């Protein structure tokens, strides 16, 4: 990757008309020309046509087509006249016909991928997908950038049974590009998208080198912040519930935490779900009942950990201080609310969308990496 940049977070249909009614009302302008009446007239049984826009604007049909297809050489005054005519009569472009000319669909796919044969998670893929606040935050951040551009976001789960179907859908050109959530080293999709010349931006540093832009947070720095906070509180017997070690975020958060503590730290693996945090906490307490500080690699697992610690008679934070990672809605849902590492997911997703739009405008654009800086958010759990 080149040009790495570090970012700090900022704070009718009408059915078929009756016979004889497929027509438009007309009225005369001051020059005596006949033209369709404006929106809200009695024309409601069918949509205005490109020709009718041309009549209202006083230009040719070809000129209207060039305006609709955003041809940059159209005179600004003529463009304004055509846009006024479109607004006046309520013309809506036929996107299917337009895509034949522009070779654009005005759609972008948000693909959440898990590779075929991947078995490190205990919880089914779709269960994790629809209970993880991270996905909602990525969607919201991307929409903030894409919606003003008139681009639709299509959310596509790519679990192992449907992986080949998703790849075929993307290959067939149903979308202009892909925002890809995929961290697994075994996932072939990033490389396949490149081979198929599908523009894509990744949501994290790829596990294997691939010429796509990506956006990430400094994972190790966030984990170090968590360790330093627990040590500053005087906690001496630290442990962690880490994420899957075959994806960069899970691995790097464990590496960063252990490096900051300066020694071997008990670790039990979860799969970033609340249930796995509960199971991992029970296992951890069975093996290390004297821990007094716990770093959990995401907020969902941390919420499950806090609940389980309380069930086992541990007070949070008096007996065990807990720090999560993400600063998601799960951090606020926990009782007590979680101290956590904030990653600006919405801003990161917006940056992904910006990088993809830039790539669509200039296919020769060099891939970039943009790295955001995490921050510590202190609440009641530590």
TrEMBL record:
CDD domains given in the database record: HTH_LacI, PBP1_LacI_sugar_binding-like
Keywords from the UniProt entry: DNA-binding, Transcription, Transcription regulation
Any one Gene Ontology molecular-function term assigned to this protein's record: DNA-binding transcription factor activity
Domain HTH lacI-type, first and last residues per copy: 48-102
Transmembrane residue ranges: none
One Pfam family here: LacI
The protein's name: LacI family transcriptional regulator
Source organism of this protein record: Phytohabitans houttuyneae
Lineage: Bacteria, Bacillati, Actinomycetota, Actinomycetes, Micromonosporales
